[in-house]
Each structure stands twice: as C-alpha cells, then as structure tokens.
TrEMBL record:
<feature type="domain" description="RCK N-terminal">
    <location>
        <begin position="6"/>
        <end position="121"/>
    </location>
</feature>
<dbReference type="Pfam" id="PF02254">
    <property type="entry name" value="TrkA_N"/>
</dbReference>
<dbReference type="InterPro" id="IPR050721">
    <property type="entry name" value="Trk_Ktr_HKT_K-transport"/>
</dbReference>
<protein>
    <submittedName>
        <fullName>TrkA family potassium uptake protein</fullName>
    </submittedName>
</protein>
<dbReference type="InterPro" id="IPR036291">
    <property type="entry name" value="NAD(P)-bd_dom_sf"/>
</dbReference>
<dbReference type="InterPro" id="IPR003148">
    <property type="entry name" value="RCK_N"/>
</dbReference>
<dbReference type="GO" id="GO:0006813">
    <property type="term" value="P:potassium ion transport"/>
</dbReference>
Length: 139
C-alpha cells in the first residue's frame, strides 16, 4: 500500500519570501510545514497561518523526513543560499517525488541546470524585471 498524496506543502527558509509563501499556501487550504533554523523567523507569520513550524535545518534529510516530505505535493526551497535551495529542491523532486517543487535562485548557472523541468526556479531579479517591463509597456 502506497502513501496518499495530500495538499501538503513544505517551505524551507522563512525569510520574507518564505513567510509569504507559507501564509499564502496555508490560506489556500494546504497543510503547511514551515522549516527554519531560527525560531524567531516564525514571528513573521500572520495570525491566520494554520500550519506547523519546525525549527531545524531544511538541508538535513532527516528533518525533511520528520516533516513527512514523502506526503508533500508542494516543496519550496527559499533559504538565503542558492546552492542549498538547488540541492534540496532536487532531492524533494527526484528522491521523494514531490510533484510541485520550487527553488528560489539568483545564480543563472543553477537556473540553467534546472532546464529539465523537475524543479521550477523562482528568480526574484528576473521576476522584478519582467514586472517592470510589463508595467512600463516595454515588452
């Protein structure tokens, strides 16, 4: 008998972006687990956040397993380190079969390495530039 996938989401890294993602996924009805090394990071979650918080290193596979990564439908790696985000997003996708996997990245070389589509890169710089061009009607 296999595991049943749920609308479970793991968010690793609770900086400003990670907190916003965790809150948004929670309000969308996902069962969210927010993971960060710093317990004070969770102070930025809104009062409506209905998920769990776990103090731990999201790059540690044992922490991810304790958070039941194998049941997750969504995985968002948004620590302050591109190499960590790339690595743990790949692990989530390729080892644990998480269907929707995202990595916050600034490094263009790492973004290029994700061209196979198993992990969706989120590049704040590129997204801001696209938004600017759209708003300024620059194509």
């Amino acid at each position: 008998m296999g595991f049943v996938k749920t609308r479970r989401a793991l968010v690793v890294g609770c900086g400003e972006f990670g907190l916003a993602v965790a809150d948004r996924l929670s309000s969308a009805g996902c069962s969210v687990v927010a993971i960060d090394k710093n317990p004070a990071a969770f102070n930025g979650l809104t009062a409506s956040f209905g998920g769990e918080t776990v103090v731990g290193d999201g790059a540690d596979v044992s922490v991810l397993e304790e958070c039941e990564i194998g049941l997750a439908s969504y995985f968002v790696a948004c620590t302050s380190r591109d190499s960590v985000n790339y690595f743990i997003a790949r692990v989530a996708s390729e080892v644990y079969g998480v269907e929707h996997t995202f990595a916050r990245l600034e490094d263009a070389d790492l973004i290029d390495m994700l061209e196979d589509g198993t992990v969706e890169p989120i590049c704040p710089h590129a997204l801001c530039l696209e938004a600017f061009c759209r708003i300024a009607n620059m194509g």
